Amino acid sequence: MPSFSRRRVLTTGAGAALGLGALTATATPAAASPAGLLGSGREESRTLDELYRAALAEGGRLVVYAGGDTPTQQDATKAAFRARFPEIDLTLIVDYSKYHDVRVDNQFATDTLVPDVVQLQTLQDFDRWKQQGRLLHYKPAGFSRVHDAFKDPQGAWVATGVIAFSFLYDTASVGAKRQLTPRDLIDPKWKGMIASAYPHDDDAVLYLFSLYARTYGWDWVAAFAAQDVQFARGSNSPGDAVFGGRKAIGVGTAGSAVSSSPVTFAVSGGHPFMAWGQRTAVLKRARNSTAAKLFLNWQLSTERQNGSFNGWSVRTDVTPPAGLKPIWTYPDAHVDGFPRFMADRAEVERWKQTFALYFGEVKGDPTPGWLGLHPGA
């Protein structure tokens, strides 16, 4: 493996322009929430079946805008919801969160609001929408058991799932006894064998690469850029390339550390990855507010939280599978850092443009397709 210097972000070139703000985005685990400290309002006391009947009486329709990478990415969620609540007419639209949020803003501006629920990666929007009075303050059942990092104290939003981004690799190609770290990604033996999402197209991938740059220096970034990496839009694309046998390593994608067969999702100690709670909220002007509440309560139920694909839950009373700890106990996951990173939009833009200098401009159509102004209407 080639050697590289540990030039830090503030000591060279583009790093100096990125400023001190980027260096404050390191993680410190947040405290778990005591059951009695809920802020304003009570938790929902109705059962799912009671909410279901009330939602049907309201009209039985629900529209959800969910962040994601492909039109079918939420098909399992749709199927599970429809199986549990078959008479609800659910429309769940998947698009990049950075398009859904401005789509909703434009719908506010033109009085043409479509969704009842927003479930997005753009964490900063929920704080802004709360300040604007756009969100319904509501605490679904189990709210008191949600970790403090994953909820608004007044119930304006709550995270309904944990997503972690790192890199993954074909276990057979690397060898089951070896654990790759981000340092290994610049080993010449992997040249031409890596797929990656564009970091300057997805803010979660961007944050992951910013952690790599801060930890390993800009020489690492330059060496990675020389690895003949297959960059593509959509954080699904690296995993697709690895699972499809086209590449050995996929960087900037979600994964599960529950199993290492046929791929290993890298969350080794002492090396950065990133995780966050995907925020979900009911819009105050939702046409189907009861069905929206049903959706939040169902998503936060222990049944759903125990069935998360990666084993992690937003709830403090759900035990991860063997070999995993609660996500907020991993300092390398930077659970607290990502919301701060997302809030500083000027800093985000500087990171984007810097990585464009290293990796080239983003190319390709959006992987969910072009959905227009009012999908689901």
Structure explained in plain terms:
This protein is α/β, with parallel strands linked by helices. It folds into 2 domains: 13-28 and 165-273 and 333-359, D-Maltodextrin-Binding Protein, domain 2 (3-Layer(aba) Sandwich), CATH 3.40.190; 48-162 and 276-325, D-Maltodextrin-Binding Protein, domain 2, CATH 3.40.190. The chain is built from 13 helices and 9 strands. The chain has helices spanning 13-18, 48-58, 75-84, 97-110, 123-131, 171-174, 203-216, 218-225, 237-243, 289-300, 302-306, 337-343, 345-359, and strands spanning 61-67, 89-95, 117-120, 158-170, 194-197, 230-232, 249-254, 263-265, 274-282. Strands 1, 2, 3, 4, 5, 6, 7, 8 and 9 form a 9-stranded mixed sheet that branches. Strand 1, helix 3 (75-84) and strand 2 (89-95) form a beta-alpha-beta unit. Helix 7 packs across helix 8. The radius of gyration is 21 Å and the shape is globular.
Give descriptors for this structure:
alpha/beta, D-Maltodextrin-Binding Protein, domain 2, 2 domains, 9 strands, globular
Q: What's the gyration radius in Å?
A: 21 Å
Termini, distance in Å?
Answer: 54 Å
Q: Helical proportion?
A: 25-40%
Estimate nothing, just give the exact number of structural domains: 2
Query: Which series of helices and strands comes N to C?
Result: HHEHEHEHEHEHHEHEEEHHHH
Mean pLDDT: 90
**Mind telling me the CATH class of the largest domain?**
Alpha Beta
CATH homologous superfamily grouping of the largest domain: Periplasmic binding protein-like II
Overall geometric form = globular
| Class per helix and strand makeup | alpha/beta
CATH architecture of the largest domain: 3-Layer(aba) Sandwich
Q: Kindly estimate the percentage of residues that lie in beta strands according to DSSP.
A: 5-15%
- The strand count comes to 9
User: Unreliable runs, pLDDT <50, ≥5 residues?
Assistant: 1-39
The major β-sheet equals:
9 strands, mixed
According to CATH, the fold-level topology of the largest domain is D-Maltodextrin-Binding Protein, domain 2
